[in-house]
Amino acid sequence: MPDAPTSQQDELLRQTEQRIARRRAAEGIASPPSCSSSPSLHIEVPVKDTGKDTGKNAAKSPEMAREARGNNGGPFLRKDGDWWVEGLGAGDSPESNSAIPLTDYILEAAARNRSSFERLYEDSDKVAGDPQHYRSPCTVFVAFLKSRSEFTAFDGYDAASFLDGLLADLVPGADDPWCELLPNQDTFDHEIHPRDSVIDLWDRILAPIDLVSPGLRRAEELAERFPVRSRRYTHFRDQSYLRVISLAYWLARLTKGHRFFLSCRDAGEFAKCSHTQASLFLKRGQRDLLLGLKQKSRRTGEASEYSFNLALVGADSRQQ
User: Fold this and answer.
1) Which end of the chain is flanked by fewer CB atoms within 10 Å, N or C?
2) Packing angle between helix 156-170 and helix 102-121, nearest 10 degrees?
3) Under 8 Å between Cβ of 308 and 291
4) Residue 267: φ, ψ to 5°
5) Cross-strand bridge partners of residue 92
6) What average pLDDT score do residues 216-220 get?
7) In this predicted model, what pLDDT tens digit does every residue of 179-202 receive, in sequence order?
8) Stretch (H or E) spanning 200
9) What is the pLDDT of residues 102-113, one digit of tens each?
10) Complete domains list, the chain, with CATH
């Protein structure tokens, strides 16, 4: 009598295995080795492949579930090529000094040097002999030039000799191209030829100045020329969102991948939408894992601090 329960259990086990074997045979699924000798029974019910992933299995397959939900049902399943910069080839750096043609760069550097010099020169409060009010003719000009790779191996005389030919081409027919573009006196009216000023200052100016400012206006200019595009956001109403992302992308590039500040109002003006709408776009950028909010503004109208995941945005494959 004590063996009766065990015999009944064995019989139930055999019947269960037979039902499973028949079901597997009908569905073309190979039967597993017999488990009648096993002390415990683990039954795996086969699931017929219907081409769809629904119910509990969908929860166990997040990638298929996301695709099934579509664009509005949850996180977008990202792939290589989801985001790119239109018109930008791999390795292009339009935000850098080196992207500006050298002749254009020299003309802009000379213009900025003259503007800075004239503000000090015309300062009515300057005191003769006060070093705070003294400026050599080419101080800012040299600082700009030293940020260009073409000048990195030069000393002062080599730099001046290199500029001799460039300035002559920029101001053809001028008696003295140097004096056409640069001041020929210091801020206290002592005559100093700009060529001699460059030679004298070259080794004394240790901190180059970037001609390209990492400011909002420069980011807007680059975002207009090289907008960020998306495989996902193709509806015409997505254009304002893409403009906000483009602006943030170039602010990050101009700051060399570091944090940057952007307000909803500035983003909205560039995207041609309200600051409230721009706020929603900035939040969407965070959900899309492009933007990271590092410090939220404390007062309305102030800029918040963001980071940008530059690695998610590629070059334009058509430019390769």
Assistant:
1) N
2) 100
3) yes
4) -65, -40
5) none
6) 88
7) 999 999 999 889 999 999 999 999
8) helix 194-201
9) 998 999 899 989
10) 4-67 (no CATH), 83-94+214-319 (1.10.10.10), 97-201 (no CATH)
